[in-house]
Amino acid sequence: MSFTLAIVGRPNVGKSTLFNRLVGKKLALVDDQPGVTRDLREGEARLGDLRFTVIDTAGLEDANDDSLQGRMRRLTERAVDMADICLFMIDARAGVTPTDMIFAEILRKRSAHVILAANKGEGAAADAGVIEAWSLGLGEPIRLSAEHGEGLNDLYTQLMPLADEFAKRAESHAPEVEVDIDLDEEDEDEDNFDARPSLSISPNKPMQIAVVGRPNAGKSTLINKIIGEDRLLTGPEAGITRDAISLRTDWSGTPVRIFDTAGMRKKAKVQDKLEKLSVSDGLRAVKFAEVVVVLLDAAIPFEQQDLRIADLAEREGRAVVVAVNKWDIEDEKQQKLKDLKEAFERLLPQLRGAPLITVSAKTGRGLERLHDAILRAYDVWNRRVSTAQLNRWLAGMLEQHPPPAPQGKRIKLRYMTQAKTRPPGFVVMCSHPDKMPDSYSRYLVNGLREDFEMPGTPIRLTMRGQGDKNPYKGRKKSTPSRLRKHLKGRSAD
Predict the structure, then answer these.
(1) pLDDT computed for residue 177 by the predictor
(2) Which residue range or ranges hold the EngA-type G domain (predicted)?
(3) Are residue 10 and residue 98 in the same domain, yes or no?
(4) N vs C: which end of the chain shows fewer Cβ within 10 Å?
(5) 57 annotated as belonging to a binding site for a ligand
(6) CA distance 293 to 458
(7) Using omega within 30 degrees of 0 as the cis cutoff, is the peptide bond preceding 437 cis?
(8) Is-contact 208 289, C-beta < 8 A?
(9) Cα(256)–Cα(247) distance, rounded to whole angstroms?
(10) Is 436:403 a contact under the CB 8 Å cutoff?
């Protein structure tokens, strides 16, 4: 990416709509009511032949206190400081407001490159607002319609010279990368080579982690502590996060992409349209994730909604880690931990053996244990077992507990193989697969967990019939035509 562009302006001027158009996806939530966006959202933007990073920000409001609006404004000002270029948007139909005048003055002082855009500029109703935008003293305004994609050519024209300038600057500051390599030199660590297959985690392909849970469990605070900066909006109010925000970072040497999601309440309580959009955005993040961290509040763990969220992650086939937050304010830690483990085993049998980690998002205690548990869960999620091992194991399981014989017909389990990983999926070839009871499938799944060290991860077990290899089975019996003619001739004689 050649440069970073931050889109700033008052609430409801169309910043998220333009962000979605530049990235080519509906990543940011969009609604008619103001103040939908609260966190900073980054995306890879394309405009003609330009490739750059674009940041969607919360609406600027005239608030400097510690209220939610004040905290949102400080986060947006931070984005202005981070960005190379600021695109200041106003509503052309509403015209220039006193708040626009205040923020235009702030941007002149804080940003070296400010581009002014008058959005919602389609039609004659916006003419007066576009002319009025000149009074902000930020040069000629671009007449935009983010909804309809109008004015993007003018935005490209203004960005092009700045992009060239940033590209030249980056080239002049590029480090020397040519290194002489002695091909005859032996690798001293050759004997220490780790023969285990390496997991496919790299800066180009980071591990995808989604943090989910009920409102006010501390998801944003936890992620801020992991990345080492106050990047996400936090506070005592429940339901602050609305968008599923993804952030890339290096967590203790592991490249990760962490999704912060909106708190998920019971479906019956979700009436507001915006909250429905937020929850569906969070559910989408679970589907894209590889590891799901279900964050509980230590004061009220394993409520019905927590169980539903954990069950959702298991049904989606994701590696699951359960983290109990706010552990720093817990008094009876030993007894509480014992009760938590007992409740976990009883209420979530489908995730038996999944890691249960106590953390404090506020102080950072327990984060290393959480990191290690996530790596272990990811490793198990990617585990592969050879067919020879599986069939030796299956023979032992059959000897220990043979399958039932419904209607007097014993089900024969012939052989077993692993069909997939992420999560581990196994296929058992057998007779009468439709008559196999669920209890016997659970017996095999639990055995796989224990004997091949796959605790907690979802395991998919499919019973499949081999079928009959006779190609004529099921065909209608018929006499060949030549034989029919021959027999017909003989009968005539």
Answers:
(1) 39
(2) 3-167, 207-382
(3) yes
(4) C
(5) yes
(6) 14
(7) no
(8) yes
(9) 8
(10) yes
Residue 180 pLDDT: 41
Is 325 marked as binding a ligand? yes
Nearest to 51 by CA among 70, 93, 31, 23: 23
Tell me if 262 is assigned to a ligand binding site: yes
Question: Does residue 487 belong to any structural domain of this protein?
Answer: no
Binding residue per annotation — 213? yes
Instruction: State how far the Cα of 346 lies from the Cα of 230, in Å rounded to an integer.
Output: 37
Q: Is 60 annotated as a binding residue?
A: yes
CATH code, domain with 68: 3.40.50.300
User: Does 59 show up as a binding residue in the annotation?
Assistant: yes
How do residues 125-181 score in pLDDT, each as one tens digit? 899 999 999 999 999 999 999 989 999 999 999 999 998 888 777 665 544 434 343
Its domain, for residue 94, covers: 4-170
Q: Is 20 annotated as contributing to ligand binding?
A: no
Please say which residue of 142, 170, 198 terminates a domain: 170
Consult the annotation and say whether 10 binds a ligand: yes
The answer to whether residue 241 scores a pLDDT higher than 70 is: no
Q: Is 216 annotated as a binding residue?
A: yes
Q: What is the count of structural domains for the chain?
A: 3
Please indicate, yes or no, whether residues 293 and 428 belong to a single structural domain of this protein: no
**Rounded to the nearest 5 degrees, what angle is found at the Cα of 385, between the Cα atoms of 383 and 390?**
145
The secondary structure of 41-85 as a DSSP string is: EEEEEEETTEEEEEEE-PPP-S--SSSHHHHHHHHHHHHHHH-SE
264 is known to lie in a ligand binding site: yes
Is 119 known to sit in a ligand binding site? yes
Q: Are residues 232 and 339 in the same domain?
A: yes
Q: Is the pLDDT of residue 10 over 70?
A: yes
Domain assignment present for residue 197? The answer is no
**Same domain flag for 279 and 348:** yes
Do 274 and 367 belong to one domain?
yes
Q: Is 96 annotated as a binding residue?
A: no
Q: What is the pTM of this model?
A: 0.65
Q: Is the pLDDT confidence value at 20 over 70?
A: yes
Q: Is residue 236 part of a domain?
A: yes
334 and 399 inside one domain: no
